[in-house]
Amino acid sequence: MPVPPPRVLAIAGSDSGGGAGIQADLKTMLALGVHGMTVVCAVTAQNSVGVQGYWELPAEAVRAQLDSVLGDIGAQAIKTGMLASPVLVATVADALVEVAPATPVVVDPVAVSKHGDSLVSAGTLETMRDQLLPLATIVTPNLLEAELLTGMHIEAEAEMLVAARALLATGPQWVLVKGGHLPGSPVDLLVSADAVLRFPGDRISSEHTHGTGCTLASAIASRLAVGDDVPSAVQAAKEYVTGAIAGGFPLGAGIGPVDHGWRLRSGAQLTGGI
Questions:
Q1: Chain centroid, CA 66 distance in Å
Q2: Per residue in 128-178, pLDDT tens?
Q3: What is the layout of strands, in order, in the sheet containing 174-177?
Q4: Active-site annotation holds for 178
């Protein structure tokens, strides 16, 4: 009988345009050789030019999905994305208390879309900081999300480190502050209580970067599910996302998505046993 692949659960919102959210999570997980599962927390009306609206699912529907999947199938890693309200954050955190820290949890603290549209209501980030981040194996904010969570203004790598340490104090084991929005060559900082790791990269000239954050967080979760430690998972995930950004393609009239299937199209082989 075939052996099932590692299982990864994405808890996030749906992107009707297919470039980010649950859709990006599942594409990433398939590309990295794990079985993706979902808890849908919101539905968005979204395309290449922006987010026209979003609608939260009731908390009882979110909790029922969590109990259904975790109570039967289980997961080797969990990734959270768009959680649009304090009630939904609290609902998810309440369920994850029962599985963390034995199961790695990757928290992508989604606050705004690629187009700058807000995806959360008042008080959501505060609830996330207080209830969800303490359960995280790793939290993966971009610069704006790090600023919103810490109240800091970040304009340089040194300030990224200060923000990472401030977020670390809220309880996660690791913090990855993504520096792609700073000028010059991008550098991400991965910080724990006793380590500071730099992940420099090349600036890729592409405007089609929709779904980058969701993709990175899901790739990290996928690698954790197959047994990588956090630094190794981040390194492998960044390599995958770099290729996806380089393969980003135009779609519609605005910002196109990254290419989750770039390895299939390039003929590149997966590494690390997946």
A1: 18
A2: 999 999 999 999 999 999 999 999 999 999 999 999 999 999 999 999 999
A3: 50-56, 35-47, 7-15, 77-80, 105-107, 138-139, 174-177, 187-191, 196-200
A4: yes
- Considering 178, 179, 247, 256, which one is annotated as catalytic? 178
Catalytic, 114? Answer no
Q: Which domains does the chain have, with CATH numbers?
A: 7-260 (3.40.1190.20)
Asked whether 142 and 112 are in contact (CB, 8 A), the reply is: no
Q: Would residue 214 show up in a list of annotated catalytic residues for this protein? A: yes
CB atoms within 10 A of CB 202: 9
Q: Is 140 helix (H, G, I), strand (E, B) or coil?
A: coil
Which listed residue (19, 36, 80, 214) is catalytic?
214
Q: What is the DSSP string of 30-49?
A: HHTT-EEEEEEEEEEEEETT
212 is catalytic: yes
> 230, 138 in Cβ contact below 8 A?
yes
